[in-house]
Design goal:
Length: 117
């Protein structure tokens, strides 16, 4: 099974509180996370152990330019990010490189898989 890993503590909190239902990743990575697939949502820094949070269903995967992201997509990525410019600043920190509004991103919408008890 493929993992959808998150490295920031802020994302871990959003995921645990079920406030994050999408992720925006730099580049065209839709082949890694095809629609209707199941992934593990995990948390942990690069090259360190990861913690499984929950299984999730990939509802929708879109590729678009950073400039074309909607406010709804930004909100599902992080309720504290309101503009593409704010997301670009965050991405420049994460990816440690200059990000442009023309850059391609993949928007992955996912929902937790809840097991009946």
């Amino acid at each position: 099974m493929v993992a959808l890993n998150f490295i920031s503590h802020h994302n871990e909190e959003l995921l645990r509180e079920r406030q994050k239902t999408a992720t925006i990743r730099l580049g065209d990575i839709r082949d890694m996370y095809p629609e209707n697939s199941v992934v593990w949502v995990t948390y942990g820094p690069k090259y360190k152990p990861k913690q499984k949070l929950y299984p999730a269903f990939v509802d929708k995967t879109l590729v678009k330019r950073m400039a074309d992201l909607t406010s709804d997509e930004l909100n599902h990525q992080d309720p504290d990010v309101h503009t593409v410019e704010e997301l670009i600043r965050a991405f420049e920190t994460i990816y440690e490189k200059k990000i442009y509004v023309e850059d391609l991103v993949t928007v992955i919408h996912f929902s937790e898989i809840v097991e009946e008890k």
